[in-house]
Amino acid sequence: MSVASIIIVGVGGRGCAALQHLQQHSLPDNISRIAISTDKRALNSVLCDNRVLLSETIANGRSSGGNAELAAAAVRDTEPALRQALCSADVIIMLTGLGGGNGSGVATELAKLAADMAIPVLVFATLPFNFEGQRRALLAQQSLLTMQQYGAAVVALPNDQLQRALGAATRLEQALDASNQFLLVILQQLTAMLADTGLINMDFNDFLSVIKQPGLALAGAIETEQEDDLPAALQKLLLNPLLQPQQLSQAKAALLHIVAGKGFSLQQFEALGLQLAAELPNVALLLQGLTLQPEADTKLKLLLLASGISADCRAKLLCV
Description:
This is Cell division protein FtsZ. This protein is α/β, with parallel strands linked by helices. The chain is 45% helix and 23% strand. It contains 14 helices and 10 strands. The protein has a 10-stranded mixed beta sheet, sandwiched between helices. Helix 1 (12-23) packs across helix 9 (172-195) and helix 6 (101-116) runs parallel beside helix 7. The N and C termini lie far apart (44 Å). The model is unreliable at 313-320 (pLDDT under 50).
């Protein structure tokens, strides 16, 4: 069976910064990284497999200046090159920051283009700080809605939630590094899950059945010791502020993937599944997979992806 081709796309300043962080770490061979922006100078500084500069005719090789309509027009003007860059993908994972020109304007148009190409999309999108004003917040909200209308599953990561998790005194550089690390751990485990064959396998179609659920998505990952209190480890994952625990109980579909050493027992596997089912009372589709890695020894990795969060929860999320 062929391995799914995954393209990770960094959009605009925030997305390209996250993509640059990923480039410093190993991912499976079936992953390629593409940076997309109107800003020529910023784009050229990103280490990745491919870059697409959006319409120099419209944007003149500069940032969109917060103009989402201009950025969207630049995407439409560059559509042939984008189709060529994305056509080999079985799934697109998009990294972006919503509320600005490139982030919102480009991301929504790419979601539309991917829908036209019948390529599933999973988006990780940061949301503006409250102090950035209502205009950026409203643009981010509209972008979330638009991408979901095109069938994309969107994991929203509010910057204010990141600030609460790390503490108000945290330096901006540290906060961005923490956000990038959060994404890295999720993407490393997610892409490994799709590339490896597990004892209880979680394949590409299982992944698609979850991300195709309408509504917002949530994702989180954790690594712990296999001998630790596993219910406490899963609870720690579920309560991660960046996972939006207040919305998680509304999910309609979820997958839990476990990577463990050879000593991992059936009882442990079942206990984690029962605990997750109890935490997600509205889930109609709950998938659980297991990959045994002897070299993992006592390490245990948990990856959670949940989807189908309702519109009411989306509105609350944007107000936290």
